[in-house]
Predict the 3D structure of the following.
Amino acid sequence: MKKYIQRAKVLVEALPYIKKFNGDIVVIKYGGSAMVDEAIKISVIQDIVLMKLVGLKPVIVHGGGKEISNMLSKIGKESKFIDGLRVTDDETVQVAEMVLSGKVNKDIVQLIENHDINAVGISGKDGKTLKVAKKEVAGYDIGYVGEITKVNTGLVETLLENEYIPVIAPIGTDDNGDTYNINADYAASSIAGALSAEKLVFLTDVEGILRDIDDSASLISRIDVSEVPNYIDQGVISGGMIPKAECCASGIHKGVKSVHILDGRVEHSLLLEIFTKSGVGTMFYGA
Ligand SMILES: Nc1ncnc2c1ncn2[C@@H]1O[C@H](COP(=O)(O)OP(=O)(O)O)[C@@H](O)[C@H]1O
Ligand SMILES: CC(=O)N[C@@H](CCC(=O)OP(=O)(O)O)C(=O)O
């Protein structure tokens, strides 16, 4: 009963804001812990379905790093990361594609379709959506890791026009047709920029950007993107949050109106951030 009351409160608070976003594209990066727990997964998908039902156009770009690592360990392969990017040899890129494009992508599609809403799962290979070049990292060869050079939005736009929710796996190809593994944060920010999305939302496993990582009360609710490099230099933003915050900044620079980092583990955080004035996570904005 408590749960229903909480849900009703979320909806009542959200209602006055809903029509303002009619028809806008909202890109959601879904990954990390928020994607591992089954109950959380179902609740996130419910929120995305609600967004679709009220006339928004959600586009899901998903990760699945933990699932790739689990599958690699099953075949006796250890996962290695440089600057938050998986070192991806020939065997690893095949596993990454199978896990992301096959398992994770289709699981999300099915969860959406359980609500009688149509979804189509693609990877960046389909419709040449994500074209990449090999990512160069000084001092290392990280293998088949792609840096996005072009987003071809044709297929995704066709799906949106036909009322499907596109679900995109971060796999792309280079000019030779070789397959590359792409960090899902970068994929989401490039796709949101190319679609001129109204909003880009990163669902992760913390409340947002915290001044003190051990104190959830230190949440920074709004960040001007010009402040991001300072926060990184001061060590406030560190580790896996560095690429995410950089993606938030680049989303704004590419023309996305607002970018949000939210705790995907908290029920309805997506609805609260999108549809209420106060919001719950960190919102990035441009000058
Ligand atoms: N200032 C900060 N605020 C919040 N989280 C931070 C901060 N600096 C570093 N982090 C770390 O970044 C992590 C999120 O990045 P990451 O694990 O790569 O997310 P995901 O797997 O969802 O893509 C948090 O769990 C936290 O440990
Ligand atoms: C190059 C690179 O690191 N690719 C990522 C792709 C998946 C991902 O980004 O998943 P999360 O968002 O769940 O972390 C990887 O192999 O883990």
Summary: The chain has one domain: 21-276. Residues 193 and 254 are 5 Å apart (CA to CA). Residues 21-276 form a domain with the Carbamate kinase fold (CATH 3.40.1160.10). The first strand starts at residue 25 and ends at 30.
